[in-house]
């Protein structure tokens, strides 16, 4: 993330998968076109029942109530999804 300051962003809904149960979290971005803002999500964690998007602003900023477009990295999620499914299959077989 270079010299960017790390923040945590809380959304009312998210399509990002948080790190849990041995699975890696999604990465991606949150953006607001009207404000020309972009937040790079490097990690997603669950804290006291809340999903926190951890990362840094690369453009602009966000404020409470802003609508954002949440885009996870599909190329990273694909192998994580396959690993998750494989774990379930292995657990059933054992």
TrEMBL record:
PANTHER family reported for this sequence: ALANINE--TRNA LIGASE, CYTOPLASMIC, ALANYL-TRNA SYNTHETASE
GO CC aspect terms: mitochondrion
Residue stretches making up the Alanyl-transfer RNA synthetases family profile domain: 1-94
Keyword Transcription regulation: no
Alphabetized GO MF terms: alanine-tRNA ligase activity; aminoacyl-tRNA deacylase activity; ATP binding; tRNA binding
Record keywords: Aminoacyl-tRNA synthetase, ATP-binding, Ligase, Nucleotide-binding, Protein biosynthesis, RNA-binding, tRNA-binding
Gene3D superfamilies: 2.40.30.130
Entry's Gene Ontology BP terms: alanyl-tRNA aminoacylation
Protein family: Belongs to the class-II aminoacyl-tRNA synthetase family.
Domain of life the protein comes from: Eukaryota
Protein name as it appears in the record: tRNA synthetases class II (A)-domain-containing protein
Keyword ATP-binding among UniProt keywords: yes
């Amino acid at each position: 993330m270079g010299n960017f300051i790390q923040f945590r962003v809380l959304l009312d809904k998210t399509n990002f998968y948080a790190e849990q149960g041995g699975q890696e979290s999604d990465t991606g971005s949150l953006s607001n076109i009207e404000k020309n803002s972009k937040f790079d999500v490097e990690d997603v964690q669950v804290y006291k029942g809340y999903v926190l998007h951890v990362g840094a602003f690369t453009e602009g900023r966000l404020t409470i109530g802003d609508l954002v477009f949440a885009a996870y990295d599909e190329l990273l999620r694909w192998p994580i999804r396959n690993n998750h499914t494989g774990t379930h299959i292995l657990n059933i077989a054992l």
